[in-house]
Design brief:
With 47 residues, the chain is an all-alpha fold. Helix content is 66%, strand content 0%.
């Protein structure tokens, strides 16, 4: 059976990754809401 120290370390790593993903997702969604990003493609050659 794993010791508590190792389980705390693994839990901390997973929590850190989860927080990073949540922050990234929040920033991307906010960018789409503010109009910084767009799902529609725009061509630069005028078509």
């Amino acid at each position: 059976m794993a010791d508590r120290g190792a389980l705390k370390l693994v839990g901390f790593i997973f929590a850190s990754i989860t927080i990073a993903v949540m922050l990234t997702t929040t920033m991307v969604v906010k960018g789409y809401a503010d109009g910084v990003y767009s799902l529609e493609t725009t061509s630069a050659d005028g078509h």
